[in-house]
Amino acid sequence: MDENSADSPAATAGSGLAAGSFSSGRGPRLFGGGGSRGTVVSTLSTVAVLAIFVAIFLLAPGARTVVHAFFYPRDAWQAFIGDPKKGYYSVGTAIWLNIRMFIVAEALILPLALMIALIRQSVHPALFPVRVIATIYVDFFRGVPLLLVVLALGLGVPGLYLPVISHQPDAVYGVAALVLSYSAYVSEVYRAGLNSVHRSQVAAARSLGLSQRTALRYVILPQAVRNIIPPLLNDFISLQKDTALIGVLGVIEANQAANIYSSLTFNYSSFTVAAILFLILTIPLARFTDRLIERDRRRRLAGATA
Amino acid sequence: MSTSGSGDPAAIRIENLHKSFGRNEVLKGIDLAVASHEVICLIGASGSGKSTLLRCVNLLEPIDSGRIVLLGQDITGPHIDQNLVRRQIGIVFQSFNLFPHMTVLRNVTLAPTKVLGMRAGQAAQEARALLARFGLLDKQDDYPDRLSGGQQQRVAIVRALAMQPQIMLLDEVTSALDPELVAEVLDVIGELAAGGMTMLIATHEMGFARDIANRVCFLEEGRIIEDAPPAELFTEPKDERTRRFLRRIVEAKRL
Description:
heterodimer, A: MetI-like fold, 2 domains
């Protein structure tokens, strides 16, 4: 099919866009040039790179078909606003469910993953069994594809006919699957962060009479978290995207809404709309990460001049 | 073992202390008493056990056998609240170990507020007084990585002093410093000694040890070989091993 082969050029054009905007922001700062000349050069190179990708895409034999299938404005708009009478949902509304699922999942993952990391880092002999369980947990959920976890919970738990637990909306099972799976990953990120803080910091804190808990809270964790903000937010960017997997349970999130639209109209512009909406969500998070890192760097430098 | 005259109870008494790391026995029976207001310098080659001894006193390393008695209390026995013990013992490390994510002021006030429960305002006031005393007041809002090594080490000393310890342990505090920064740190220690602070100091600065110490202990391979007032130990050491060590130091122009 035409549409199948179209998949990869479309993706390339997308990543070309992202790379272009990235270099224009980073280039001058990284290479120290700065000034107007640096800006001109980076703008020109961005435009050139973009032009090349667009040219390759448009010159492809199937370009016309693909543009119609994926970038048709009327269909894109229809998918965005939705039309209940014709049986399809608004992708623009459905994305809110992704946002809500993402926020709830993130709020649960952060403390749960930290708990797992701390258990795995503990050395007390009495905690040995818990340590083993935590290790098995992490191994298991990092090894099983997230899609399978979503399906297992979404289809399995309701089948148990348990009171309350088996009578939740499908989105709840989806979020639970995200939390289980991502907590395993994020706990490893935390662990790397905890290990990145030098042992002498623990000694310094304890020698002042700080208890283990106080030392952890005020001395170790702040340094650990600071060191892992980029990989942590990186995981959350992919968490935002992975909320789309919950669509397999029939939950009307953005990707599922787009899917319904395309199956009714044989036009894929709805997926483009969903992709753009996801980008609108993830790009600010990426920029926010950069800003946090930059702010931290500045604050450390500010000490000297003050 | 002489505990420098009078009936002064020992601030710290170490009895037959043994400590091994795996098969490597680092301390092979240390006996040492530090009287209140006394300054004792530990000298000896790297690996002689000086640092380990200090870390044991501060309970940062569990000991294998023996006793450490702090102000009449056995701190190595069971059911000892380590945090309570450590409040009374300040330790300063070779590598400063300031908290890099906190300003100088916060480094100093953290323990008083979180351990002693002091109000933030009062802790800051006392911290500023201490910083001012050691010429660091203008650095209070800086982060440690903007300070010179000497300034960082002085802050580390202030941070330990803020807990009003009964005794200070200094673990080769000038070894990581550029030569021109050593003096400012030694001056601070001299001032502490003049103020009557009880101190146990591991050091490679022989001249400093000679000037400041009431007693100097020479350690070799986990044992105290010789324990004498500096005038005696540096001029007429009794043990052949002490003489050999000092000869090497003189040859290296460190004394």
